[in-house]
Amino acid sequence: MTQRFRIGGGLVDRSKTLRFKFNGMSLEGHTGDTLASALLANGRRLVGRSFKYHRPRGIFSAGPEEPNALVTLRSGSSAEPNTRATTAELFDGLAASSQNHRLSLNFDLMAVGDFLSPFLSAGFYYKTFMWPKSFWEKVYEPAIRASAGLGALSGEPDPDIYDKGFIHCDILVVGAGAAGLAAALTAGKSGASVVLADEDFQIGGRLNAETHTINGKSGTAWARDAVGELEAMENVRIMPRTTVYGSFDHGVFGAIERCTDHLPSSNGRPRQILWRIYSKRSVLCSGATERPIAFPGNDRPGIMLAASVRTYANRYGVIPGKRVTVFTCCDDGWRTASDLIDKGVRVTAVLDTRDNVNFPQVPGARVELAERVVATRGRTGLAGIKLQRGDWIETDCLAVSGGWNPNVHLSCHQRGRPRWRDDIAAFVPGGSIPEGMKIAGAASGALTLSDAIGQGRSAAAEFASDLGYRTEAESKINASDEKTGISAFWSVSGAPGRAWVDFQNDVTVKDIAVAAREGYRSSEMLKRYTTAGMATDQGKTANVLALALLAEQTGKSVAEEGTTIYRPPYTAIPIGALAGRSRDKDFRPIRYTPSHRWAESQGAVFVETGNWLRAQWYPRRGEAHWRQSVDREVSETRRSVGICDVSTLGKIEIFGRDVGEFLDRVYANTFNTLAVGKIRYGLMLREDGIVYDDGTTARLGKRHFVMTTTTANAALVYRNLEFARQCLWPDLDVHLISATDGWAQYSVAGPNSRDLLRKVVEPSFDLSKENFPFMACAETTVFGGVPSRLFRISFSGELAYEIAVPAKYGRSMMERLMSVGEEFEATPYGTEALGVMRVEKGHFAGNELDGRTTALNLGLGRMVSKKKDCIGNVLSERPELNRSDAVKLSGFKPVNRSGMLTAGAHFLSPGQDETMGNDQGWMSSVAYSPTLGHSIGLGFIARGDERRGETVRAVDLVRGKDVDVEIVSPHFYDPEGVRQRG
Amino acid sequence: MADPVLTPEPFLGGYAKKFKNAVLSEATGLSIVFVAEPPDGREELELALFEKFGLNLPRPGSSNLSANRVARIVWLAIGQYLILFEDCKGPAAHRVSAELQDTAYVGDQSDNWVALRLSGAAAEAALERICPVDVAKCAFPVGGVARTAMEHLGAIAIRESNDGFLLLSSSSSARSFLHAVQTSLNNVH
Q1: pLDDT for res B1
Q2: What is the mean pLDDT of residues A905-921?
Q3: CB count in 10 Å sphere of residue A753
Q4: Nearest chain B Cα to A806, which residue?
Q5: What integer best gives the mean pLDDT of chain B?
Q6: Inter-residue contact A427 to A151 (CB < 8 Å)
Q7: What beta strand segments (E) does A773-916 contain?
Q8: pLDDT for A460-474, tens place per residue?
Q9: Alpha carbons A704 and A651: distance in angstroms, whole number
Q10: Residue A593, pLDDT score
Q11: Which ranges constitute the DSSP H helices of A505-655?
Q12: Which of A216, A298, A858, A911 is deepest in the core (most CB within 10 A)?
């Protein structure tokens, strides 16, 4: 098929022919084409079906505002649905297909919906399909969803890679049309660092689409020269194919750069990059978007925006039709007629809604003033239009211009509301503009070329000067000062047939009238009720038209009606780009303990604990179930000695003269009496008196302490301590630094732990009970000189130590510990065995510190010292937290010892109904105790400390379990602590 | 007493790789010492640091290299610094503590950090993908220091030369940090 609608001129490179496919048909275009321009060059007018009624739709515009020409690019896992053909850059081998039809694009079975349109008006789903009720979810909604829609995702993983990044600049210029280029040149020459971003692949904006001249040369040539000049400046970064999609606080903008979308393959490079641009100032030169006029049958393929028609002719050398008619309410429509005639295209007629227009010469065209289009015909493409006076004009392309809407979006993303200007019949930026932003060119409502360039220069010069850069006087620009007259005209009334407002969501003038009649009379309600402006084009061509029509219905002016809130993104951003690199295993960082590789070599099973990977258990040959491994690890530890990697515990080094006082204020219990070489257990409260973390602090020197926290709360505790140090009590001499990653730390637990460690620490170090008792600490060395910290603490209830070495020795340390432990049959144990032993011993952990429990609930009420103040102390005294029937941490044993307990079960008295009112507490942790030979649990039950020996039910409605349990002490194992103090 | 053997292991195994226009390697010989000022003790600390190590206290956001280029002091927070020693023999913290005595609180930080050296023409572009801080030379000159986050990981970036950076991040997530920088280098080519 030849490009029979290709004419001379334009910016495409005719020496380079590109082959592409649309719905399987082979077609040709040129470098510089978009998919839309290439389709039009080949005479393809029908390119898709509408969302709701499956109406035939064609290319409507030449930019990101396109509501109709949505296609799926590529195929298989690389398929990308809902791509605008008007912005998709053509490349050799591109394959595109149309969307939302059954059978073929030309004959869509689902188009039957169009005949049902009287029943499918705005909000139809709120009013219909009400009976039978059960059918809505199972029949009606699935049927509606199946018939309406856009393209489909492949359902396969995206094979491309995406990236993100951060750019900093003095001045960001958004949009590289005449205003943007002028701004960038002025700013760049001043020496400021400048980023110039434009969504198009061809820098120049509408200069590339018009026939304007600047200083005697074509706009295109001026833009090309400007780019050349900017490229020579080291302080200027030009970013084509980059859409600035959002304006955020403090001069931060979001932008998406399409790096390889225009290439057949990404070839290992990121396909798109999501940039965060930090600017000190910004100049918004985002131009304007033409809007349509609503009239019956205005959605047929071949009916297009007038400026887009001349864009195709001027920039791409393509004519969308061979008998073009123009329908306009402003001077701009006439420019399309003039440009087409200059290119030898036949313009059949120009229809202007105004009755008094000083129009230019349009040779060969019929001119009608005060005229309207009242009907159109042509099944899959426009064939003719009917005038209000009754006669028909044979035409295959109707170029419609309803005026221009400045692209105010980025100026409104921080809740700014644009203001209405009657002289151009459009909203322009107004109200609160983002700090440090100026708007120049058409985006500000300056619709002539000379104004655009002047505004761009002046905004950039002022900003450059603000930032301390010197700007030179600019040479005079001699540019077109085109006519911009307009008399707002929104829709043709009084004619039968549906007139479309939002093409993508199939919203009509009648829908808006229905909404207003039914009480949806504000712009925000109109949007939600009719879905106008809620499609993927975000109503770029529809919104203002819909608001104006609502204003007509409600008797307000457009200015009074106002707009809806503008929100980012300006154009759709692929989820892949938002995710960037954060996918699969790189979704988040992974933290490894220093001896992780050793654990791997032992076949350990790992569990994620926050970002950490921790060994959960170490299976041995012959063990078929995790419980076998865990039971063995517990038993062996209690029998002889076990070694557990506890490097993940938070470690905070605290220095200073006032650390004791500081700790007194952050811990509930007293710390300023802690002696050097000793450790104390501590509870930390939130401001509201609830316990949020527990741990130990060791005093290694007069002014040096080391705090340990739970793994989960390491960062939170550190952050809270820093806040306390810096903001609450800056007068205290306290310095903090995290040491969590610096030390590989191992719990060595069990009756033989002391004997094992005697083979590890320096020979002169006396590990005897008398010299190094429970809760002692020391700095020493291991294995002949490696610095080490030794803590005599126990989480298992056994005689136990925690020994730490610099992290780089971690793997070697674990290997050596196991090696010297061979004579004691030392066993490594994981977090499961750790958990079993702490439940046996009655130590609480994260399950018990669930953000609801106080020290009193935990049985540690007396730890909240009343001799001093601390964070949370006052609010811990609230009466509700100190009720006589408060829940208390207790142990639970199944009455029938073979019964298995479940965490999450709630406690009820025998015979009580399972209601909230009868709930007495909950089971927080359970374990099978190989030491006791049955299941055990920790939990909270009302007055639990007074009810030892009582039997209650542990009811787990989720798992359908109801077990009789005996309330016992939480300390199942060695309640007197003889073993750990041994 | 067991054999007196414990073998230190670099967090990334001494990683080193050449990329197009960049070199990335693990700095394995670095000793890092935390130094904090006692109240009203800045002058004494300043004197002691200069006398013992030839170091001047840096301003916020910067670092100073000793005259013999073996130590760099990095501003960390108000009254807090890191001193970085190249190929230090023995535990650097002990030495610093002994030299500074009561003029500072001293702690060993060496094993908290994995250190990556990134240099070459592509270094800035690679960092631009993961580092929110402006690393352009005009904004981040040689000696500049920034505490920041890269790919959800806390990090300290130090500009050591016109095209060279030292990057510090938590040693436990060293592999993720390396992956982040490697990916950036791959993506900018």
Answers
A1: 44
A2: 96
A3: 29
A4: B111
A5: 95
A6: no
A7: 777-782, 786-791, 800-806, 827-828, 887-894, 906-908
A8: 999 999 999 999 888
A9: 13
A10: 98
A11: 509-517, 523-530, 543-554, 558-561, 575-579, 596-601, 626-639
A12: A298
Asked if A611 contacts A813 with a C-beta cutoff of 8 angstroms, the reply is: no
Q: What is the spatial distance between Cα B172 and Cα A648, in angstroms, rounded to a whole number?
A: 9
Nearest to A166 among B36, B107, B128 (CB): B128
On the question of pLDDT at A110 being above 80, the answer is no
pLDDT for A475 equals 87
> Which class for A350: exposed (0-12), middle (13-18), buried (19 or more C-beta within 10 A)?
buried
The pLDDT, as a whole number, for residue A482 is: 86
Please state the rounded mean pLDDT for residues A942-952. Answer: 97
Token duo for residue A816:
């050596």
| CB contact at 8 A, A29 and A37 | yes
**In A, which residues are within 8 Å of B36 by CB distance?**
655-656, 735, 737
Query: Is A733 in Cβ contact with B113 (below 8 Å)?
Result: no
- pLDDT band at B3, cuts 50/70/90? low
Strand partners, A745: A804
For residue A509, which of A524, A519, A494 has the smallest C-alpha distance?
A: A494
What is the model's pLDDT at position B41?
Answer: 95
A820–chain B Cβ distance below 8 A for any pair: yes
Quote the CA–CA distance of A902 and A924 in Å, as a whole number: 9
Among the partner residues A166, A588, A812, nearest to B152 by beta-carbon distance = A588
Cα A242 to Cα A816: distance, rounded to the nearest angstrom: 57
Residue A687 has pLDDT above 60, yes or no: yes
Q: Which of B112, B132, B133 sits opposite A739 (nearest CB)?
A: B112
Evaluate if residue A401 carries a pLDDT over 70.
Answer: yes
- How far is A688 from chain B, CA to nearest CA, in Å? 30
CB–CB of B31/B110 below 8 Å? yes
CA A357 from chain center: how many Å? 50
Residues 604-633 of A with CB under 8 A from B: 611-612
pLDDT at A359: 86
N-term to C-term CA, chain B: 54
Helices B92-100 and B42-53 pack at an angle, to 10 degrees, of 120
Tell which wins on pLDDT, A222 or A104.
A222
A755-A761-A765 Cα angle (round to 5): 90
Whether residue A838 contacts residue A845, with contact meaning beta carbons closer than 8 Å, is answered with yes
User: What is the secondary structure of A191-214 as a DSSP string?
Assistant: T--EEEE-SSSSTTGGGGTS--EE
The answer to whether A894 and A953 have CB atoms below 8 angstroms apart is no
- pTM to 2 decimal places: 0.93
Residue A469: predicted pLDDT: 97
Alpha carbon A236 to chain centroid, angstroms: 29
DSSP for A488-516, please give it: ---B--S-SS-BEEETTTTEEHHHHHHHH
